[in-house]
Amino acid sequence: MGELVKVIATSLVDNPESVEVREIEGSQSIIIELKVAADDMGKVIGKQGRIAKAIRTVVKAAATKENKRVVVEIIQ
């Protein structure tokens, strides 16, 4: 899941080397923390959060195969 988020995020931002993805895995859920440069934060979130919502939707669809709940957090 983390690699999927990283691929999506690096294709969106101007500074792909600053993209960091961290996975915290529990028994029932996975938390994915996405960290990008401050300048690229708007590109990852999008207008009214549309891009962030799309990223979460894609990851949630991929997670249904593993029967796990996924939370994507975009941090600075």
TrEMBL record:
It comes from the Bacteria. It is found in: Cytoplasm. Keywords: Cell shape, Cell wall biogenesis/degradation, Chaperone, Cytoplasm, RNA-binding. The keyword Repeat does not apply. It holds the Pfam family KH_KhpA-B. PROSITE patterns: KH_TYPE_1. Its main location: cytoplasm. Forms a complex with KhpB. A probable RNA chaperone. Forms a complex with KhpB which binds to cellular RNA and controls its expression. Plays a role in peptidoglycan (PG) homeostasis and cell length regulation. Belongs to the KhpA RNA-binding protein family. This is RNA-binding protein KhpA. The lineage of its organism: Bacteria, Bacillati, Bacillota, Clostridia, Eubacteriales.
